[in-house]
Give the backbone structure.
Amino acid sequence: MRTLKYVIKRILLMIMTYVIIMTICFVLIKMLPLPAVREMGKDINLILAKREAMGYNKPILVQYFLFWKNLLLYGDFGLGEQMYVGQDVMKIMLQKIPYSVTVNLYSILIAVPLGIMFGIYAALKKNKWQDHFISTLVMVFISVPSFVYAFVVQYFLCFKTGWFSLTAASRETTPFISLAMFKSMFPAVISMAFSTIAGLCRFTRAELAEVLTSDYLLLARTKGLTKRQAIIRHAMRNAMVPILPMILGEFIGILGGSLIIEKIFSIPGIGALFLTSIGLRDYNFFMALNMFYTLIGLVGNLIVDLSYGFIDPRIKMGER
């Protein structure tokens, strides 16, 4: 009962936080000058009519009420004004999401096993040259922004060797689930995987190294278990308790895409769409994508937080 009350409380707090963030974003963006409608023939009348329906000429509070009304009752974010002119915002987003999900999923499936494997190896070789070498690489990959890797990958794998194309293939010319599509996305996948590998490696190494020096592991050895048995049966199981929620959070975040990487490799996902909407000041796309990214972040944090109690029964949610 106490756990249920805690979960309900967290969900209500998440909803309140979400509404506050969206309110601030809506008010701030409405304070900017309204962008002019591009000369797109018959689409001008359509956009102007949509603006009228959404109360663009009314006070901000009225616009805010109409925004939530259209969204909650009709699922309507409006029409594109500066890009995809006259097209439904939600429809365009649904077309873009599969690209972001695919490239993120490939990246995670590569990064998670490698990150955990290198972290375990570094912990087992603690304070040896292997540990120092891996830890140095981890610090480098964590410190350097991902777009720097993207340019390096583009230069060596795409430009110098010519093994991969500079940009991802289009779904219109290449089957979405195919080896050709994976190959075209591979440079972006690798660029995104570096930081995830480094983060998981550092976290796994720290957790496992701490467990390996614990008293109960020494007790397991004195009872006759070999080093390998003690590590597999006890050390790995306890070290994975804080690591699994981190992996879960990575999988939840696959919907979010990567803003910079998608733009660099011309992947037509929602990350590139978000950056373009900011540059062109397409308010409808910006609000829709901002709501999308904020919701993913809040839901992801909630699920990761709640997962600790299910992964480790010793953690009692709602206890003081």
